[in-house]
Amino acid sequence: MRPVRLFAFLLGPLLVYGSQTPLNAYSTTLVDLLSADADYTQLLRLLQRTRLIPTLNKLNGSTLFAPTNDAVRRFSPWNEYLSLSDDALTDNINEQVRQTLLYHLLNYTLPSFPPKSDVETYRTLHFPRVKLEPPSKDPPPAPPWIPLPGGSLNNESQRLRAASRDGHAYVGVDAYGQSGISTAKDPVNGTNCMLIGIKDVIETPSSLAAIIRDTPSLSYLSKILPESQMDDLEKQPGLTVFLPEDDGWDELHPIIRLYLESPFAHADLKWILGMHMADGKLGYSTRFGDSTKLRTIEGNKLRINVTSDSILVSGAEVRQKDIYASNGVLHTVSNLLLPSGSLQLNAEKYLLALNCSTFVGLLRSVNLTSLVTDINAEYTILAPRDDVLEIAGGGNFPDEGTDELKRSLRYHFIPGKWRTDRLKDGALLETELIEVGLGGARQVLDVGLSSKLAMKSGGKGKKEIYFGGAGVIGEPIEIENTLIYLVSRPLTPPSDVLTTALPSLDLSTYLAAVFSTSLAETVKNLPKTTFLIPTNKAWERLGLVTSYLLMPTSKKDLESVVLHHTLDSVEYFSDLRNGTDRSFRTFEGTDVSVTRPSDDQGDIEVVFSGSGGWDGLQAKLDMRNRINTLTETGVLHQIDTLMIPRSVQVTLGKLVRAAGGGTMASLVTRAGFDWVLNGTAPPEDSEYAKYGQGVGWTLLVPRDEAWRDVNLTKLWDDADAVRNLVTQHLIPTFPPAKDDDKHHGGKKPRDNLNALVAADENAMPLNMYGQTHVTARSSFSSYGQISFMDKGDHFVVGITGARGTRGDEDWAKVMTWGRSTTSTGTHGQYSTKGGVIKIDRVLQPYTPRWWVRFGPPIAATLAVLFVILALGFTARWLYKRKESEPTYEPVGRDEEEDG
């Protein structure tokens, strides 16, 4: 003890702190008291190592709550610190150990101990401060280390409470005298000092953030506060905080609580916390008086009323007071200290509470939060929940922050409040998505309603609601001006027409047609369009016409056909079905007319007619497929027939090429019938000109493989044979009589009506349902007519009256056909077009053998002669028989004669 006392004696005159006088060299200091008791050797080592011996000796009046050796050993930070060598120390200042020791030290001597009142509060020499630098091995600034005012308690030192209960004294108790550390020894007095032994180390108060985490009644606040705000509560100095306990949050609407628990409530939580915090002079309860007011960080005032048994803060009861923290003081209260209605709930908070945080986060990434935060805006929101997006593997949303995402999200907002009673099946609702491809108009979203089979109470079925094909989950949620539907998947805005049509296998021919031309980019970017897309069957129905259009040499005509199916306006199904008959301009340049006839059941149909083609070529809106298939630039409808514009002239010559009938085309030209292929009228001096105007021509074209059995060289040199063969395959199509055409205002006999209707629907050049037709050869041959037979799945054609020997092989099978769009003339308002019928064999002109030609008349003549001879011989025999019979004269005849 002597060296230490000598060191203190020599330095004593140099140490001056405030108004204190130098230590008396013969006084009994705290160091003397500690050295005199073997139970404080560990504590004395700590004071020496942290260089606090000079501080203790300097103080002229002090009280030390001294942990015993057992207490030091049980306190692991100190025990570990003492086990390190001087060289192993990384902190020459020993900040943490030193501050904890100073928390056990008062710079004044207590007049008595244990406390006489229930709870006494002392000011220690611990001035907590936020650590700004890491530990250092550099020497301290200047000895001795006297704690200087400042730190994180606004120049105040940390407080320590003591209390007596059940006959024992405790230090480090709470504001109500509970908990704390019991004394281990009776107080020992020295010269103007007191030493009090205690059983454990008094730990310095933690930060406000740590206290919130460790306080069970503040578990909800600890759960919802983000780390950034916890960091503020860790470092921000000099705070007086009134925090609501867990049951105080129950006054909030459950949706608001769910919102606060989301990761997007940081701003609101910061505001809420700021409404419960004051800075400046620390607000210990001992400083409260009746009607005390504290201004919070957010600017509002907290009114404090103190009664004999309670403290009220803006009407909320203080439940736990004066919880000391390293950077302030904490009081817990029974309720939130918020003005009524201040925590306003908007659509964003509802969405977050409904587990749509990903949806909200995406809105924030593209600066669309105004759609959900503007309380005056009226929207119907279609929102997918987080679990829906997770099941979908992240959903169908584009990447965050992209223009594609912004476009997709806008498609989930419908202006106005569309309650379930306002929704109708097939309705189109305008969305918040403004489309450049629609000329700045809003993109629409289709609504679907279906009745659920399961019946609810009352016998009424529940309607299932769909938006853009996405089902609605649960009931809609209404809040102020907003209505929220939770949907089963994200909604995808319409794409360009080609991308939209691509998944449909029934539109593959149309897509192939577009991509085979140079129209792909044009079609995708045409603004404000309605696409009337023919199905694959629609293309098949025109047979050789389609084959011609898809030929590499027909691209110009194909482009005209494609553009003829593209209307220069957006016409949804309701516009077509409910509007009057009218015409629409196409991007091809001509019009498409729309009519609304009724079918046999009285249902209204939508029928389109192109500007060209032939009479009766009409397309119906295909109701079996989805109507109003939306696109980025308008809408797509499927039709059942291909329409031909008048700018496309499909001649027989083009159809012959499409049928692969090059040989037949050469023979037609060789025979002088090239006008048939060109679609012009026959020469005026031709015998076929006498047929008159309005006559069309249908050509039977054998496929090129069918000519293998024909000696073409011999045939080519025989002009008459070529003419006979061509005319055998050339059929004039006469215009119908005025009262003989059902499709043009007249009536057709019922036995032939179905065949005519079927022929028109299948784009046949002529009726092949069991019909017989004259040919160009009929005028000079008895065997010029041809007959068709319906075999169910195909047709066959043969020469009428021809006597064959090979059964079915004497007939040619019809492979396909096509109608031309050109005519040699008109008959009234009706023009006959004709066309091409492709067959699998050549119809050789029939000339019967001589016995076939002359046998029947010779036989008939011989039969007549035989009959005449037979009659003559019979008459002569009868006559001779009569002459040979005997003759008897009557008695008395002679006498009579004589008389």
From TrEMBL:
Compositional bias segments (type: Pro residues): 137-147
Record flagged with keyword Transmembrane helix: yes
Highest rank taxon of the organism: Eukaryota
InterPro entries, sorted: Adhesion/Biosynth-related, FAS1_dom_sf, FAS1_domain
Key words of the record: Membrane, Signal, Transmembrane, Transmembrane helix
GO cellular component labels: extracellular space
Transmembrane segments: 858-879
Stretches the record annotates as Disordered: 131-153
PANTHER family xrefs: FI19380P1, PERIOSTIN-RELATED
Full protein name: FAS1 domain-containing protein
Species of provenance: Serendipita indica (strain DSM 11827) (Root endophyte fungus)
